[in-house]
Amino acid sequence: GLTEGMWKGFGGSKVQILKTRMQSLQPDPRARYRSVYEALKKMVLTEGLWRPLRGINVTMLGAGPAHALYFACYEKMKKSLSDTFQPGRNSHLANGIAGSVATLLHDAVMNPAEVVKQRLQMFNSPYTSVLGCMRTVHRTEGFRAFYRSYTTQLTMNVPFQAIHFITYELLQERLNPHRQYNPRSHIVAGAVAGAVAAAATTPLDVCKTLLNTQENMALSSLNIRGHLSGMANAFGTVYQLGGLPGFFKGVQARVIYQMPSTAISWSVYEFFKYFLTKRALERKPAS
Question: How far apart, in Å, are the Cα atoms of 3 and each of 14, 116, 264?
Fold first, then answer.
């Protein structure tokens, strides 16, 4: 969990800010980008070298505990459900359900961090610090603002994790049929699983970004007053402003972000699983 938190903070933060900007439905003319490279180049030249790292601290604070909870829940549920569905064998249904349930815990921790991070990342953001953003959002919109996109986040992440885990386990059966510790297979399977799941769930991510950022230019162009809430409203707004292509804004940045994130996550997870299991077996005869 801590290792993926570090990727999301240092490496992933740059790609995440590009994704947030590229998913904007009514961007400022100075923040219109045609590609990930153009977005990064323009951002560094006009806003400074450190701008892509905005929100790094809140991401790292949330990602560590969120992913620790996530994998602990996944491993426990996967074993229990596999024993129920297919005793002694790997069950894809169990993997999908375990991944989906683990997401409930993960997102409960990460959702407030996501709201703060994405508000800091928007072009011309009025917020200058994490604490300042949290105080302003709480004072002007209330505590529920930190969980306004929670149902959308779950609606996105439950299918994301189901696709992610099932794809990973299917690839492991092909690349690593004996299920031994094999770093190359864990990295490849993790990266491909992350890319497939990310691309498939991009429309939901665009809606989540809109709910998190409450993009002023987009909402005012449709004469929407107050705060946008609910996945159905977000879907309608995205379609009105961008049509079907609007649901796939930022898909390239999202896939680029998820591939190393899931590759690192699985390789580190499998390493510690192997290391701890090996240590437990070595100690067993002595006890």
Answer: 17, 21, 8
